Amino acid sequence: MRSTVRIDDDLMMELKERAHRENVSQTRMLNRLLREGIKASRGRRAKKSLYKETTIAMGTPSVDLDKALALAADFDDGEILRKLALRK
Q1: Which of 6, 53, 59, 70 lies most in the core, judged by the most C-beta atoms within 10 Å?
Q2: CA-CA distances (angstroms) from residue 60 to 57, 63, 80?
Q3: What is the pTM of this model?
Q4: Contact 48, 54 (CB under 8 A)
Q5: Backbone angles phi and psi of 53, in degrees to 5
Q6: How far apart are CA 6 and CA 26, in angstroms?
Q7: How far apart (Å, rounded) are the C-alpha atoms in residues 81 and 88?
């Protein structure tokens, strides 16, 4: 695949020198260096420490949490009824 890329002059000179020293084309050298850089960046990402959340014991729940959505709906219904009663 062809692509146009702007490369700083100092990097291009170093690329040409390395390609000449290793007796490979500039394209081959550039591809090799890009692959090495991408592999190195993948390795660094994997080494990052993951965020760890601290937990706190809150004791035994006072309500059955298996029906938490139904409980929340009951609370909402009660609040709606309270607000309607205040309007009268």
Answers
A1: 70
A2: 9, 9, 29
A3: 0.47
A4: no
A5: -85, 135
A6: 14
A7: 11
